Amino acid sequence: MSSRVNPQIRDELTAFGFKDGDKCYSCSTCTVTCPLATPENPFPRKIVRYLQLGLQDKLRQSPEPWLCYYCGDCSTQCPRGADPGETMMAARRYLTALYDWTGFAKKFYMSEKFELMAVGYVALLVGLIMLMFNTGQPDWQHADVNSLWPARYVELADLAMAAVLSFLLLSNVWRAYRAVLGELRGKIPMRLYLGQLKELLVNFLTQKKFAGCSDRMPWIIHLLIMTGYTTVFILVVVLLNGLTFDNLRFQRGWPEYPLLHPIRLLGYYATVAILLGTSYALWGRWKRTKPAYQHSHPTDWMFLILLQLTTLTGIFIHFGRLLDWPLFTYALYVIHMMVAVPMLLLEVPFAKWAHLAYRPLILYLLKVKEVYQAQNTAS
Ligand code: SF4
Ligand code: SF4
After folding, report:
1. Which of 35, 145, 162, 344 is buried deepest, with most CB atoms within 10 A?
2. Closest Cα to atom 3, ligand 2: which residue?
3. pLDDT for 61-89, tens place per residue?
4. Is 339 contained in some domain?
């Protein structure tokens, strides 16, 4: 296995949020403190050491950054103020950039200006497309978005975007898989991968290891955002046009569903969950209420702000429909899309949302590797 040394890695990592790692004198207090570290994966000290020595390839192959949920206990206990929790976060951002073959992730993390411009360009493009492509026959009697942008066309655009995002994300996931399993990947039989798929699903849906941290609040916030987002995904990708069933259609014409209709209840759950989760995280970062919120990279802010704006504009659209204000509703719909599309197109494959894919994937691969090695030892 190669172990290329890159002395510039620490300088590069500064742009990814690495600040005080050089203060570390390898006492291991952080690793002893960490509730998630194990003898096989002795982090965060191991990762801090890799960064100090510029061991880029070792870092690329390391699963440890994805085993950390940033509770911050290690940073609180570090006698040198080396902030190992933030170093682990910086390592995750760095790995996200290394896995990404397009180079966009690296640009996002290294340049706040680039990220802002990318979001701005995509938002403007979406606004222009919506103004250019519509039926030209708005319903001015009732707030009916379908009169301008029919659900079946929006659904097609949704599916095209989902296909592009899936391709980008899965190709990066493939690179993460190659990096973490290395030469072992050709030796592990397919039945082992299939046999452990449950691990992938459970970790993706629950992030159960997060519950092992001393402070459980971030896990609850994560679950709120995750379940809220998954619900929105089902509503806007799977059910936007209701699978052709009129009473399941999320983008419905006037009038709105009755209050207790399942589609409306799902929408309310998603709205409350995301709003609570993002408000808590934004407030925490603003006030620096926890060790994990002490340092915020611009990409952390962008992710939370876009997600919250998407939710808030969604709420305004809902009120516009309930109050039956056509112009207000149509204008808010355009603004909503101008926020939601950049969030999805840029955050899912290249930034914070990608962590949702990498973390369960790597926990799953570690399980597959563990089972494979146990079987080999036994035979
Ligand atoms: S980061 Fe701090 S606690 Fe961890 S090994 Fe270095 S000095 Fe010790
Ligand atoms: S932040 Fe928490 S989970 Fe991450 S390495 Fe430190 S103690 Fe462990």
Report:
1. 145
2. 68
3. 999 999 999 989 999 999 999 999 999 99
4. yes
Q: 17-53 as b/e, with b when 16 or more CB fall inside 10 Å?
A: bbebbeebeeeebbbebbebbeeebbbbbbbbebbbb
**Distance between Cα 32 and ligand 1 center (Å):** 10
Q: SS3 for the chain, per residue?
A: CCCCECCCHHHHHHCCCCCCHHHCCCCCHHHHHCCCCCCCCCCCHHHHHHHHHCEHHHHHHCCHHHHCCCCCHHHHHCCCCCCHHHHHHHHHHHHHHHHCCCCHHHHHHHCHHHHHHHHHHHHHHHHHHHHHCCCCCCCCCCCCHHHCCCHHHHHHHHHHHHHHHHHHHHHHHHHHHHHHHHHHHHCCCHHHHHHCHHHHHHHHHHCHHHHHCCCCHHHHHHHHHHHHHHHHHHHHHHCCCHHHCHHHCCCCCCCCCCCCCHHHHHHHHHHHHHHHHHHHHHHHHHHCCCHHHCCCCHHHHHHHHHHHHHHHHHHHHHHHHHHCCHHHHHHHHHHHHHHHHHHHHHHHHHCHHHHHHHHHHHHHHHHHHHHHHHHHHHC
pLDDT in tens, 291-308: 888 888 898 999 899 999
| 188 shares a domain with 153 | yes
Find out whether the beta carbon of 36 lies less than 6 Å from any atom of ligand 2.
yes
CA atoms within 13 A on the CB side of 368: 25
Query: What length does the chain have?
Result: 379
Contact 194, 279 (CB under 8 A): no
Higher pLDDT, 150 or 13: 150
Instruction: Report which ligand 2 atom has the smallest distance to the Cα of 85.
Output: 1
Q: Whose CA is nearest to atom 8 of ligand 1?
A: 27
Cα separation, 325 vs 140, whole angstroms: 8
Cβ atoms 278, 304 nearer than 8 A = yes
User: Does residue 152 register a pLDDT over 70?
Assistant: yes
Read off φ and ψ for residue 361, nearest 5 degrees: -60, -45
Q: Tell me, yes or no, whether 208 and 253 share the same domain.
A: yes
Nearest ligand to the CA atom of 80 = 1
Would you say residue 76 lies in a domain? yes
Q: Domain check: are 36 and 120 in the same one?
A: no
* Cα–ligand 1 centroid distance for 23 (angstroms): 8
